Amino acid sequence: MTETGKAKAMKKTVRAAFVKSLPVMAGYLALGFGFGVLLAQAGYGPIWALAMSVTIYAGAMQYLAVDLLANQAPLVATAIATFMVNARHIFYGVTMIEKYRNAGKYKPYIVFGMTDETYSLTCDGKSPEGIDFPRFAFWLTLFDHSYWIVGCVVGALVGTLVEFDSRGVDFAMTALFVAVFVEQWKGTRRRRPALVGVAVSVLALLAFGPDNFLIPATLGICAVLIGGRRFFETKKETEMLAAQEVALIKEPLASTDATAEKEGER
Amino acid sequence: MIDFSHSVAIVAVVAAVTAGLRFFPFLVFGGKRKTPEVVSYLGVALPPAIIAMLVVYCFRNATPLRYPFALPELIAGVAVAFLHAWKGNMLLSVGGGTLLYMALLQRVFV
Question: What is the mean pLDDT of residues A178-192?
């Protein structure tokens, strides 16, 4: 590829990632803003908001971290709380291992920035026609991260300067997940796992209460999906095949690899 | 009292544990050529279930049995779902839903 060709391809990737990141922009600016306000009210200014949004970059956890900071929580308790709230990220990673296997230099940052929202936009492993998926995911992560940083810092700035009513601003996170859920529901035949997710989570919520149900819910969902595998598999097989065919057209080399791998497993 | 160095340590621990959880599966399964079959199966079946779980998570603090009977969450949530099924525009669904919820919370169900 010539230099201009490369630059053109890069421009195309960046633009596509930007467009895909737009819905998260609204959510992250609002959510980050809410966090910044809370943080400022706890006595920590914009510099703290900047440091936390750059290094932690996890929505729900940063909200919880405000409480931890305000109470000067012990470090062991901090570590346990973080583990409980964010353990679900292990499962996000599990679903992306193959999709990012050849991500190379892009991989560390993509993995670092795998938030709920960015994950929900990339978990289908798809990028627009003719655009390299890992590079697309890298830019998408970078855009999302910058919205988050801007939201957090501006929130902390405003929170230190003015009083105002930000109650309810955290609904942005809820709205985003509901919209992603609707999109998945319309777009695929993969409805049974979604129903399993709703049912098991509601049961876990009733059994363990709002503060402790994420881990049991995640484990329960895995157990049901693995236990009832035969029930979910037929759909999966057709989908995998379809996905491989698409990949074959897009990127012959990588998917030949994947097909060989699949065959090796059998 | 806020202690500067302890605060820095709290932020560092949260950041380190979060990053550790995100890198863990890639370090365990990422190096070898082959991922266990059950892991690749979960890779396909889990995402929709996890999104469903996160939706439930977001509604975890709603109070269906006492005032306001989870109505702000329910009304705004249903509005987002309909808006998104109808228009399919994320920005509209998220922005509209959030503003509606804030209005319900601050003006209607006070």
Answer: 81
Q: Does residue B63 belong to the interface with chain A, where contact is any CB pair within 8 Å?
A: no
- pTM, whole model, 2 decimals? 0.70
Cβ of residue B99 closer than 8 Å to a chain A Cβ: no
Between chains, do A193 and B45 touch, taking CB under 8 Å as contact?
yes
Q: Does the ipTM surpass 0.85?
A: no
pLDDT classification of A3: cutoffs 50, 70, 90: low
User: Which tokens hold the place of A191?
Assistant: 């409805």
**Contact list, B47 vs chain A (CB under 8 Å):** 95, 123-124, 184, 193
Rounded to the nearest angstrom, the minimum Cα separation between B69 and chain A is 16
The domain locations on chain B are 1-45, 59-110
Q: Which long-range contacts (CB under 8 A, 24 or more apart) does A114-117 make?
A: A114/A89, A114/A141, A114/B22, A115/A57, A115/A58, A115/A59, A115/A144, A115/A148, A116/A59, A116/A60, A116/A173, A116/A177, A116/B54, A117/A24, A117/A27, A117/A28, A117/A59, A117/A144, A117/A173, A117/A176
